[in-house]
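Can you please make up a protein's amino acid sequence together with its fold in token form to help me picture the idea?
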Amino acid sequence: MIRFPIGKLSLGIAGALVSVSLAQAADYTFTFAHVLTEQTPNARAAVKFKEEVEKNSNGRIEINVRPAAQLGGDVEIIEQTQMGLVHIAIPPTGNLANFEPKMFLFDLPYLIKGEQSMKQLLDGEVGRELLGTLEKSNLHGVNYWGAGFRNITNNIREINQPDDLKNIKMRTLQAPTILATYRAWGANPTAMAYTEVYNGLQQGVVEGQENPLANIDSMKFYEVQKYLSITNHVYSPWIVTASKKWWDGLSADERDVLLKAAAVSRDFERKDTRAEADKALAQLKADGMQVNTVSPEAVQKMRETIAPVNAQIEKSVGPDLWNAVQTQLKDIRKKS
């Protein structure tokens, strides 16, 4: 017979009873789904969101986080959120643009140049206006998280100017703006689900891809990519997105708990993303990637090359929104 010390046995029973009590105390369990691996800042922020909600609701609300594409890719998760099968998601704006074209705006290279302009644009009036456009798609935009600035990796050559991308088979998000951008730069872009990128690179279906540094590191793309070019060409916002029908059915107190948790988690994610980018870059170098930084002159050339894409996006989002964004960005740059 195995004997347990009385003290340890009592503690074990007490702990079990507390766990059962907490489980029984939850009045609601809501699903939060995303595609990211658990080692990324947004995935950690989702866990932070869960902790904040459960703490501040006194255990009445439980959040079931489903990471790493357990419920499908971004587009599939968005569709499940529309139907209320998923309560909360965190898709990138590039995928949300397939449901609300105004989100194409965020895919424009060099629209956002730094963290300060990012915060003021996304957390300000223009950002709130764009969140509101999701309502007609049966979605409710809560706030903006992010994944940092996107950079380019490939197996062919260093990218120092647009011409260096010529004929490279690039994996991108399923987003028309991004596809059009890479075509303007001379590449051959292919939309592919995030979870399929590693195999696509390994098998030569695609030769390059773009992602924030933390994602490049966590997905181990350094195992199947030789060159990393620091372009910082797009800031990648991810929107905490709720099922509209579900959100509208919550009480004011329940929404308040969720909103406060989303704000805390957003700030947690942004701080984590900054630290993770520096750490990831050092690790990618240590893992053997050849790293170069694109010069300011080359950045200007890349911006000039995609002028037709900018014109098309201006037409898609409408002159009012386009002008509002440009005005706010000018004000931000004057103050910085």
Q: What stands out?
A: The mean pLDDT is 91. The longest helix spans residues 252-286.
